[in-house]
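Section 4.2 – Deliverable D4.2 (structural model, holo form)

The reporting period included a commitment to supply a predicted holo structure for the target in complex with coproporphyrin III. Inputs used:
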Amino acid sequence: MAYDAFLLLSFGGPEGPDDVLPFLRNVTRGRGIPEERLAEVAEHYRHFGGVSPINQQCRDLLAAVRADFAAHGVGLPAYWGNRNWTPMLADTLAQMRDDGVTSALGFATSAYGGYSSCRQYWEDIAQARAKVGARAPAVTKLRQFHDHPGFVAPHADAVRSALATLDPGRRASTRIVFTAHSIPASMAATAGPDGGRYEAQLHETAALVHAAAAADLPWDLVWQSRSGPPQVPWLEPDVNDHLTALAAKGVTDVVVSPIGFVSDHLEVIWDLDNEARDTAEGLGLGYARAATPGTDPRFVTMIRELVEERIAALPRRRLGTLPVWDQCAADCCPTPQRRGAK
Ligand SMILES: CC1=C(CCC(=O)O)c2cc3nc(cc4[nH]c(cc5[nH]c(cc1n2)c(C)c5CCC(=O)O)c(CCC(=O)O)c4C)C(CCC(=O)O)=C3C
Ligand SMILES: [Fe+2]
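Output (structure tokens):
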């Protein structure tokens, strides 16, 4: 298979106050998210002038990938398209078609499997191709990278740096708290060929980062940024509830490491740097939030390696033992039940 382009696939985010509600409507269309939750999340964006940092983070990553490709003789042009906000994927695919692209390799800014983090990107690709119509380029998504050394090492360094900001005299009562986006329990149960793979991969990443960064300290994997109506079960515990439980057990300090994410977007700078930090301060816990990979050169190199391993059928660099899973089987990671879908 010959590939003639690279495509960065991401979530998208608003870039001004007028974008916030239309963006949120795009994200939640047909997903049964209550209006109150939308209003609350709109407020989070308004704290930052209605601008999510995620699009700029994608521009920065794209620039770093282009420079790295050029330096290493990877001759693929690099494009970028989003699920929920401009540049929308269908517009990018139309541009690619006009530029003569026929078959691209896609890198999604999510390391894990499951519907929201993986299969939905395949659906986005199919829908965007249908919209573009004749001669729409084919897009093959690159593999999940939760255990790639280029993802694990930057997270591990970040945990070490965050730990260094806490009181070393209290290290014995310090704890590492890994977080990822909560998802509905039903989505978690059907993630991957035998279910539960989103949680299993996160558990593996947490264990790898922990072993590399702070093997002497206890750790937990918890969830953040829950959405959806309260009667629908999502993965628990929530990070804020967990901090409360830790404080009650005598933990004095926490490093919070958002291994579920690749950059410091709104879930990180609001849900962790504001909400979880406030919770920790209210409990008298020392708090340090570890950074995400962003444009760490090792992460950028990883993206090139994922491309090269596909093109040349090279061995896959990985630290974990869960099976590699390139594409969903017909019956895994199903689309959640849509409510009010148009
Ligand atoms: C697994 C997962 C990831 C990680 C994998 C990946 O990165 O893809 C992720 C990332 C992100 N989620 C983001 C934003 C939002 N997610 C929402 C809602 C939801 N997320 C879900 C899951 C995930 N989400 C789910 C199951 C829903 C319910 C609705 C649905 O089934 O789709 C909502 C609606 C409002 C609300 O929060 O209720 C918003 C605004 C942003 C952008 C941040 C920015 O702007 O900087 C990013 C990177
Ligand atoms: Fe989300």
